[in-house]
Design a protein that fits this description.
Helix content is 82%, strand content 0%. The chain is an all-alpha fold and 166 residues long. It has one domain.
Length: 166
């Protein structure tokens, strides 16, 4: 078991391999600790009315300084948000479809053709949204499983790595 506050300082007597291992271990532990501390901040961003990319960048980091665990989690949350937005869009299309069908049922002969055409267009759009939701839901489940397995493996690897260094 490891204690997150433990430091693995590089000693002058350490071999180059041990120095590299300690440096990598320190970086890994920092990323894992940041992940645990900032995961809820990522949740807050994706649960808001709109995603603030600049705030997300401050949490995750930029370029080489990106925290890979937070980035992976943000990708999961982004897919979840995409699905939720698509569901809202599908609900709006359902209401729009219902409205046009109501109009069609009471329309005069000269309006029936354009209204029928619009109903068909909305049905196609709604169908596309529904198929996108199904596809994105599959991707979301895969991303979520991959992320959770990755985090579990990282923690196990970290414990093993610390045991081997000590």
């Amino acid at each position: 078991m490891y204690i997150e506050s433990d430091e693995f300082e590089v000693a002058d007597s350490d071999s180059p391999d041990v120095k590299l291992s300690k440096d990598s271990l320190t970086e890994l532990r920092k990323n894992l600790s940041d992940y645990k501390a900032k995961k809820s901040l990522v949740d807050n961003i994706y649960n808001g009315d709109y995603v603030k990319e600049d705030e997300l960048e401050k949490i995750i980091g930029v370029d080489e300084d990106k925290n890979p665990f937070l980035l992976s989690y943000a990708n999961v949350e982004a897919m979840k948000r995409k699905i939720e937005d698509s569901q809202k869009s599908g609900d709006k299309k359902s209401l729009e479809l219902s409205d046009f069908k109501d109009r069609l049922s009471i329309a005069t002969t000269d309006l029936k053709v354009p209204l029928s055409k619009r109903v068909s267009e909305i049905e196609e759009q709604k169908s596309k949204i529904e198929s996108d939701i199904i596809e994105d839901t599959k991707k979301f489940k895969e991303l979520e499983i991959e992320h959770n397995e990755k985090m579990k493996n990282v923690e196990n690897d970290l414990k093993e790595w610390i045991k081997n260094i000590q």
